[in-house]
Amino acid sequence: MRKRDLNFPDNSGSSSATHKVSDAEAKNEVRLQVYLAHSGVASRRASEKIILEGRVTVNGKVCTELGTKVSPSDEVCVDGNKITPEETKRYILLNKPSGYVCSLSDEKDRPVASELLKEAYSERLYNVGRLDMFSQGLIIFTNDGDFAARLSHPSSELEKEYIVETSVPLPRTLAEDFKKGVRVDGVFYKCKDALDMNARKMKIVLLEGKNREIRNVFASREVGIRSLTRVRIGNVTISGLKSGEFRELTEAEVSGLLKLCKK
Questions:
Q1: Cα separation of 105 and 113, whole Å?
Q2: For residue 179, what is the enclosing H or E element?
Q3: Which of 123, 112, 111, 120 has the alpha carbon at shortest distance from 83?
Q4: What is the mean pLDDT of the chain?
Q5: Which end of the chain has less neighbouring CB within 10 Å, N or C?
Q6: Helix (H, G, I), strand (E, B) or coil at 62
Q7: Catalytic residue chosen out of the listed positions 5, 106, 132, 193
Q8: Are 39 and 84 in contact (CB under 8 A)?
Q9: Strand partners, 228
C-alpha cells in the first residue's frame, strides 16, 4: 500500500503534500494522539506529551503537531518502533503491591507495575491514573484510550476508596476536616467522605485524587502512614484479588465504570 506524506510545516510556515488524499483515506483519518491511544501507547493526554517531546515520526518525519491527522496507510513510530491500532481492547484490574511504580518505564530502574502483566498480555497496556510507589491496591490497565480518558478526567468524579493505616492515633477532627477541606502548602484538598474505622485506621473516598493527596493531608497533621490501600474504583472492588494478582474486568464492570463517569 502506498504511503502518503502529511503536511508538515517547515520553518517558513508553508506546507505541501506529495499526492492528493483519497476520500476513503480522509474518512479513516484520526488525530495523531488518538492513533497513539488506539495503539495502546498511552492515554490521549499522555500521548500528546509524547508527541510534543518529538518521540513520534509519521512516514519517517518527526511530528510535534497535535492537530496532525493520520490514516491506516501511514507509518507511525514511537521511539523508532512502529505502532498500529490494536483490535482487541483490554481492561485489566491489578492489585498493585507496594514498591512498584505506575509508569511504562522508570529511569531509576525501580520495579514497574505493568511488568506484572507482560507474561499474560502481548498488547501495550498502560495504567489509568496512578498509585504512588509505596501505596498499594487497585489500578486499571488498558489499551483503550477513550476509556482511559473518560475514567481519568477530573470531571468524571469517579469514586476511589482507600483504607489508611497509621503509625500513631488519628487526630479526632481529621476525618471531618478532610471532608470540609484542608489547605496544605497552598493546595486545597477535599475528600468526598472520611470515616474513622478505629484509632489508627480510616476509610477515605476521593473524587479527583490530586497528587499524593492523602499523604500530604496526613503529613500536615504529623500523622505517619503505615499503609495506604485503594480498595475500590467506582463499582469495582478489591474483593478476591490478592496483592500482585490481576484479572480482566467484565463487560458489565467496564460499562458500569463508564456510566458512573459524570462526563
A1: 9
A2: helix 174-180
A3: 123
A4: 87
A5: N
A6: strand
A7: 132
A8: yes
A9: 164
